[in-house]
Design goal:
alpha/beta; Rossmann fold; Alpha-Beta Plaits; 2 domains; six-stranded mixed beta sheet; four-stranded antiparallel beta sheet; 11 helices; 34% helix; globular
C-alpha cells in the first residue's frame, strides 16, 4: 500500500534571471487525511507553489513527490493525482450545474452510478439544489464557486488543492463548504487550503504554514502558532472615517491600522486600561465601536506578515 504523503523539499522558483524569488527553499509535508493551510497575503508565493505542484510550472530546484510519484519529473502524474480548484471561476457557462459536476466526475474516472450518488450528496450538503438545473452562465459568482468545489471533490484526487474556495460565497453556505472540506480530510484525502482568510482557516485546518515573500515564516498547529501570544489580548477599534490614528498609550505593545480598522495588542493585565482608553476614544468621537478578546491566529499572521487586509476584509 502506497503512502500518499505529499512532500515538497527546498522548492525554489525565481524570475528575472534569479533576481526575484516567488518561492525560496520551501519545505513542507501534507499527510493523507490532513487539511493543511497555506496562508499569506496576495503575492506571497502561494499560487506559484500550487502551479508547481500540478505541473504548470517547473521549480528551479527542489523536489516534490506525492506517494511514489515525482511530480517534477512527471507533471502528467501530478495532473492525474491532484484535484485543483483555482481562484478563477470554472468555465461552465454552457452546462447545467448537475451536468458540470457529473462530467467532471466521469473524467476523473468515476462510474456513472458512483458519480451520480456523490454529486447529489454534494448538492444537498452545499444547499445548492435550487440551481441544480440552472446553466452556469446564469449562476451567481458564489453559487458557481460552490459548483466548482463540487466538481473538484466529486471524485477527489490523492491531493486536493483549494485556492481561496470561499470567494463570493455567502456566509451560510461558506460554513457548509468548510464542513465539506473537513469531510474530505476525514475521508483520507490530503487537502491543501490556500487562503488569506485567517479567521476561517483557523477553524478548518489541522496544520498550517504562514508564507510571505516566497518563504515560510512559521508552521505548526493553530494552537502551537498562537503560543507565543499567550498572555496578550487584541483590542480592535473601528475608527471614525477620516480620523487620524490616535496616539498609543504606553500599555499598547503593538498596533496595525488598515483603513478604519485599528488593532492593538495589549497584555491581559492591561485589559481594564484598554477598555477605558477605547471608551475615551468613543467619547471624543474618534471611534465608533471596539471589542477586546483573546489573541487569535490572525494576530500571529499580522505580526509575521504585517498584513491586516484579511482582518479588515473580514470585518462586517
Amino acid at each position: 500500500m502506497n503512502d500518499w504523503t505529499f512532500r515538497a523539499d527546498g522548492v525554489t522558483k525565481s524570475y528575472d534571471a534569479g533576481k526575484t524569488f516567488a518561492n525560496e527553499d520551501l519545505t513542507l509535508t501534507v499527510e493523507p487525511g490532513e487539511v493543511y493551510g497555506l496562508l499569506g497575503p496576495n503575492g506571497a508565493g502561494k499560487t506559484t507553489l500550487v502551479k508547481q505542484v500540478i505541473g504548470l510550472l517547473k521549480p528551479d530546484r527542489g523536489s516534490m513527490t506525492l506517494g511514489p510519484h515525482d511530480l517534477v519529473a512527471d507533471p502528467d502524474a501530478a495532473r492525474q493525482l491532484c484535484s485543483y480548484l483555482p481562484q478563477a471561476q470554472m468555465p461552465i457557462n454552457s452546462f447545467k450545474a448537475h451536468e458540470a459536476i457529473k462530467i467532471t466526475g466521469m473524467i476523473r474516472g468515476g462510474t456513472a452510478a458512483e458519480v451520480a450518488v456523490r454529486r447529489d450528496e454534494l448538492i444537498d450538503a452545499l444547499d445548492i439544489g435550487e440551481w441544480r438545473n440552472t446553466l452556469g452562465a446564469r449562476l451567481s459568482g458564489g453559487v458557481k464557486r460552490l459548483v466548482g468545489f463540487a466538481m473538484v471533490t466529486v471524485v477527489p484526487g490523492r491531493l486536493v488543492i483549494l485556492d481561496e474556495p470561499t470567494n463570493d460565497v455567502d456566509p451560510a453556505r461558506r460554513r457548509l463548504l468548510w464542513e465539506q472540506v473537513r469531510v474530505l480530510g476525514d475521508s483520507g484525502v490530503a487537502v491543501v487550503l490556500v487562503t488569506h482568510n485567517v479567521l476561517e482557516a483557523e477553524k478548518a485546518v489541522d496544520r498550517l504554514a504562514i508564507i510571505d515573500r516566497g518563504r515560510i515564516l512559521a508552521e505548526g498547529t493553530p494552537s502551537a502558532l498562537k503560543s507565543e501570544d499567550r498572555g496578550r489580548m487584541r483590542l480592535q477599534l473601528k475608527l471614525i472615517p477620516g480620523s487620524e490614528t490616535p496616539a498609543m498609550p504606553d500599555f499598547v505593545q503593538d498596533h496595525t491600522r488598515v483603513r478604519n480598522t485599528l488593532i492593538a495588542v495589549v497584555a491581559e493585565t492591561d485589559a481594564a486600561h484598554s477598555i477605558g482608553w477605547a471608551q475615551e476614544l468613543m467619547s471624543a468621537n474618534l471611534a465608533e465601536e471596539y471589542s477586546l478578546g483573546a489573541t487569535t491566529l490572525e494576530d500571529v499572521y499580522i505580526r509575521l506578515t504585517g498584513d491586516l487586509e484579511a482582518s479588515a476584509d473580514a470585518t462586517p
